[in-house]
Amino acid sequence: MEARGLAGGVVFGLLLFFTSFFGSIFLLAPLLPITFIHPKWCRRLMDTMIFLWKLYAVALYENLYHVKVVITGHPIPSHQDGSALIVMNHRTRMDWMFLFSYQVRYGSLSRYIISLKEILKQVPGGGWAMQCSSFIFLNRRWEKDRAAIDRGLDYFSRLNFRPQILLFPEGTDLTPDTCARSKIFAEKNQLPVYQYVLHPRTTGFVHFVQRMKEAKMLDSVLDITIAYPKSCAQNEGDILIGKFPEEIHFDVKQYMPSELPCESQDLRDWCCARWSDKDKWLQDYYQKQHFYDADQGNNNDNVNENITQILFYFAMIFWTLFEVFVVYILVLSPVVRWYCVTCSILFVVLGKKWGIECLLAESVKISSDIFK
Q1: How confident is the model at residue 7 (pLDDT cuts 50, 70, 90)?
Q2: Lowest pLDDT segment from 175-189, 293-307, 345-359
């Protein structure tokens, strides 16, 4: 890796860490008390701050590394205010971040919620912001995971919030080790052996669909297939050495709730069928370097990229000024330094003992009792 790539990767990582860490302390922590007075205002204000950070991340990697984004299929128009369950193959550990590029063009980056491993909530800065964003944290113990899903969906429902939730049914990213384990599982259970995807874990998917339907929160299921035609960033280490993908391709299929089966076993079969299709699509994709429906053209042509770039520039200016401001007040004021230490301890304690996302969910009930 050339020095420019290594330097650029380190700078990218430091900028995201700095902005997420101090953004949590100066922009999110002061909003937490508001949630017990007016949860909706708190949710909107936090979403705005976190939206700007997500925008900053995608602006950096698209502009700094000139990552090309290609979107085919049937993405939801950005003006629609719908709630969706997004299911996507998990090619790398960074897929969740690269999906920002799709969300900023067609989805709703401010309402983009990720279900992810519980351990990530403890990451300083980024993990704190994830908790404030009410991401859904899972740890592969179903009883606990079901409670986390139900708590998150109940919180969104009470606020009339329309989330777009990303779920990786495979549970982990595609690596030689996970491929080998998936192959053993397939052979043991007399299932087809996949090359480009892992066999999905369907319990979470079924529960999400059924609970979102019950809450009238499921406007569509988006089946997204992500592919990297040249190179990919498999993990955070690749990001830090500047190994970004040259291109990211998304193929999107939209399913209405009426198109989904109702029974649990039928939903499991439906999910497994989609993953079987994905493996075939990806096999064909890597031979032709485009998805089967590429004759429809790149849907980016339907997006006003000028507006997208204006948003990118705004986010970069906002966070650059924020970084300068933070350094300035940290140097000048011991009180601000103590404030940062206090907030850091508070985030760690709240995250470990309860979870900020749990407190936000509980605040809706408390606020309703106080002001009803």
Answers
A1: confident
A2: 293-307
Report pLDDT digits (tens) over 279-313.
999 999 988 877 765 445 455 556 788 899 999 99
- Residue type at 308 in one-letter notation: T
Pairing of strands 68-73, 136-138: unpaired
**What confidence tier does 64 reach under pLDDT thresholds 50, 70, 90?**
confident
Enumerate the domain spans of the chain.
Answer: 3-371
pLDDT at 2 over 70: no
Give the chain as a 3 state SS string: CCHHHHHHHHHHHHHHHHHHHHHHHHHHHHHHHHHHCCHHHHHHHHHHHHHHHHHHHHHHHHHHCCCEEEEEECCCCCCCCCCEEEEECCCCCCHHHHHHHHHHHCCCHHHEEEEEEHHHHHCCCHHHHHHHCCCEEECCCHHHHHHHHHHHHHHHHHCCCCCEEEECCCCCCCCHHHHHHHHHHHHHCCCCCCCCCCCCCHHHHHHHHHHHHHCCCCCEEEEEEEECCCCCCCCHHHHHCCCCCCEEEEEEEEECHHHCCCCHHHHHHHHHHHHHHHHHHHHHHHHHCCCCCHHHCCHHHHCCHHHHHHHHHHHHHHHHHHHHHHHHHHHHCHHHHHHHHHHHHHHHHHHHHCCHHHHHHHHHHHHHHHHC
Total residue count of the chain as it appears in this document: 372
* Token pair for 191: 């299932």
In this structure, what are the phi and psi dihedrals at residue 275, rounded to the nearest 5 degrees? -75, -35
The end-to-end CA distance of the chain, in Å, is: 60
